[in-house]
Amino acid sequence: MVLVGASNLSALMLCSRKLVRYVFYKRCLLRNLCTSSAEPETIATKIDAKIRALSTQGNIEEALSLLYTHCSLSLQTYASLFHACAQKKCLQHGMALHHYMLHKDPTIQNDLFLTNHILNMYCKCGHLSYARYMFEQLSRRNIVSWTVLISGYAQSGLIRECFSLFSGLLAHFRPNEFAFASLLSACEEHDIECGIQLHAAALKISLDANLYVANALIAMYSKHSGSAGGYDGAADDAWTMFKSMEYRNLVSWNSMIAGFQLRGLGDKATRLFTHMYCNGIGFDRATLLSVFSSLNQCGAFDDINVHLRKCFQLHCLTVKSGLITEIEVITALIKSYANLGGHISDCYRIFLDTSSELDIVSWTALISVFAERDPEQAFLLFCQLHHQNYLPDWYTFSIALKACAYFVTEQHAMAVHSQIIKKGFQEDTVLCNALIHAYARCGSLALSEQVFDEMGNRDLVSWNSMLKSYAIHGKAEDALELFHRMEICPDSATFVALLSACSHVGLVDEGVKLFNSMSDDHCIVPQLDHYSCMVDLYGRAGKIVEAEELIRKMPMKPDSVIWSSLLGSCRKHGETLLAKLAADKFKELEPNSSLGYVQMSNVYSSAGSFTEAGLIRKEMSNYKVRKEPGLSLVKIGKQVHEFGSGAQYHPHKGAILSQLEILIGKLKEMGYVPELSLALYDTEVEHKEDQLLHHSEKMALVFAIMNEGILPCGEKVIKIMKNIRICVDCHNFMKLASYLFQKEIVVRDSNRFHHFKYATCSCNDFW
């Protein structure tokens, strides 16, 4: 026996470990040698699977990068890549893949399965000419080849090509449900007669009951129901089709709900959704979007509170289902709350709760909700959008300009205009049109003209916008001169602007000529808006008989606007009996509006019939109809000041009333006589004068004069915005005040602008 020392033991153990490693290495090498022939196949399979997974996830660039750095793929993997390119509409990637595939193996294109996928990719990406070329070159085609090309033409709206191919298909194959569904989708936007023929063809081969075909038929009939032409949608073929289905999927329910919504049958759409939900049928994003839109339609005609409650219930469902995270659903929810009269703070709260989920489309939708109801908040949201580094598009800017149109001065519109130039949208025709409108509504006609003159490309809306701008500022002569320079055929809206311009300054003869020329020279049939302008034109000029005769001869039933125009004219010219008729007609059409009651009360008060005026006010109170209080806004420095009657809540009320009394005294010396007939009550003369003295626009003017050193528009212009029409007394007051202070006073009331200068007004007293 040999004894081993400690040092020798260590050396032996080291040698043993080396021997173990060597044996292990040799075994591994042998195993690798044995399996070396299978390794490339395993790697290729893994690459194939990886590329298919990437293409399914939509990561096309990564999938193609992996393909180009490795070997060829299986037919299924190539097909999945072409399918992904079709879904994402990546034509360049699809063409590059096609070229690569042919370069690697030209014979692979003989496989019909793969060729159909390539054909589908070109169709989905809109490259129909090459898709048709490929189709014509095929030595063998199957039903899929025909259907793919038919679908491609259908998506592009080429209905003639669709039916030509369909005829060719019938000669070789029995068409399947996908071919019918594609053709019917093309008929949605075009000829209903072709769609009816397709329905008959599907019926012959018993495909009309197929789920895809039936859903397509519902969509087609819904879009054409009640449309002009030979098709009579009164029978509601979409609903008949829906009821006849033995089996319905979610698309069937969504198509029918969307069909009702599309035709303005919002109540039916909401009832169908209720039935659907109560029977345990699920819903998705598309369902909710249609139902929200349907609620908006219902709110215009029915009890607003009922539909607001339905909107709240839908809100609960969106939260419960988890669809509240969908951007489109959030946007539709906010719009519905706003359209149905929900509190604006509720809309903002929803926005804040989900703001991290929103994109530029949702921001724009929210701004549009606030644009009319709270323009200041809309503008602040637009600024917040900038601060959070969202990139506004042309539509965002157009909504921001819509909000700016409600401000007293043009400063906000100018700020948005500068951003439009900075972002490179200054040549956009839509935005230029919005700028024309915004500047005009803010009182700066000169800036509207500048934008119009600098436009490189004007469309019909551009000309109409400028004509409307001249109309609301009382520049009828400029409007008529611009009309004669129009480089494009006028439309119905053009004549509304022109007739309105003539009405505002009393150009009766010119207005009559324009009205007659619509049908004689331009083949435009006058609509309600045109008749309303003509009634207003005759009425302002005191031609009440002509206005009444025109209403009797109208080919359509007069609306509330026409009766309100006649009522205002009767009040101005003291036609009490006709005013009573007009007021009754107006109240029938607008029972919740205070205008009919207020105007009739004023008619009686002006005639000294204070008892009858009191009865009208009592009737108004009994029906719980409220008059909108008169408010006036004026901007001093960077702050907008609001005035109600008597400046009740203004901190400088005492000083304002004191200065106003002094001003009244000076104006009386110049010939100002208060219009006491406008006082609503049978009181002493002094009390009647007090009623007129406290009108909000007078308060705003005095406060502006007291702070003329910091007026935003310069020392020569005072801008006042009023929510209702300016009265006769205030109109006379402003004319004399403009002469006394040697300043231009611009008052924007609910109808138009009044430019007071040197004791005259731009309206020539025809307001």
Termini separation comes to: 131 Å
Number of helices: 39
Unreliable spans: 1-20, 22-38, 226-234, 681-688
Query: What can be said about the biggest beta sheet?
Result: 6 strands, mixed
Secondary structure tally: strands: 6
Proportion of strand residues: under 5%
Overall 3D shape:
elongated
Structural features:
39 helices, single chain, mitochondrion, elongated, 767 residues, 6 strands, disordered N terminus, DYW_dom
Notes on the protein architecture:
- The chain is mainly alpha-helical and 767 residues long.
- It contains 39 helices and six strands.
- A six-stranded mixed sheet has the order 2-1-3-4-5-6, with helices on one face.
- A hairpin with a 2-residue loop joins strand 1 (632-636) and strand 2.
- The radius of gyration is 37 Å and the shape is elongated.
- The N and C termini lie far apart (131 Å).
- Residues 671-767 form the DYW domain.
- This is DYW domain-containing protein.
- Keywords: Mitochondrion, Repeat, Transit peptide.
- It is found in: Mitochondrion.
- Pfam families: DYW_deaminase (PF14432), E_motif (PF20431), PPR (PF01535), PPR_2 (PF13041), PPR_3 (PF13812).
